[in-house]
Amino acid sequence: MSVGTGSYMNPRDGDVVEIAVDTSDGFVHVTRVSVRGCAAAKRVAAEVSLRSRLRTPEDAARIEPTELIHRLELLPDEERCALTVVAAFRAALVDAHVKTLA
Fold first, then answer.
1. What is the pLDDT of residues 1-26, one digit of tens each?
2. What does the alpha-carbon distance between residue 28 and residue 19 come to, in Å, rounded to a whole number?
3. pLDDT single digits (tens) 16-56
4. Containing domain of residue 17, as a range?
5. CATH code at position 95
6. Cα separation, 15 vs 55, whole angstroms
């Protein structure tokens, strides 16, 4: 099975992001996103879902927070939202990979 879940909580502001991905066909499909946080975190999560679509897991893992910060024109105080979402997304990719190996 290659469905993985990842979550991350930003200790500074308490935002919590949970992401589930399916990589069973060799491409990333974000199947669930839960964001308990600010609007910027929700915008970043939507952008990660969009940018990861039909990419290989290896390619999707290369999505960088700085890309998202510039693309979405996040304010300096919102930059941590990109870090939180990318951390949860990468954790989901790792979880899917580990489950594939099991």
1. 589 999 999 988 889 999 999 998 99
2. 12
3. 999 999 998 999 999 999 999 899 999 999 999 999 998 99
4. 3-101
5. 3.90.1010.10
6. 27
pLDDT tens-digit map of 86-99:
999 999 999 999 99
* Count of residues in the chain: 102
Q: Position 49: which residue type? A: S
Domains of the chain: total: 1
Residue 19's beta-bridge partner residues?
Answer: 6, 33
How is residue 35 written in tokens?
């964001």
